[in-house]
Amino acid sequence: MEPIDELSLDTKAILGLQLPTDPRWVNLAEKSLQDILTDHAYCEQKAATSCISLIQRYSEKEKLVTALAPIVTEEWGHFRLVLAELQKRKLKLGRQRKDEYVNQLLSFEAKGGSEEGRLLDKLLICALIEARSCERFKRLSERLEDTYLRNFYRRFMESEAGHYTLFIDLAETYIDKEKVRKRWKDWLEYEAGVIKSLGVRGDRMH
Ligand SMILES: [Fe+2]
Ligand SMILES: [Fe+2]
Question: What biological-process GO terms show up in the record (predicted)?
Answer without folding.
Answer: tRNA modification
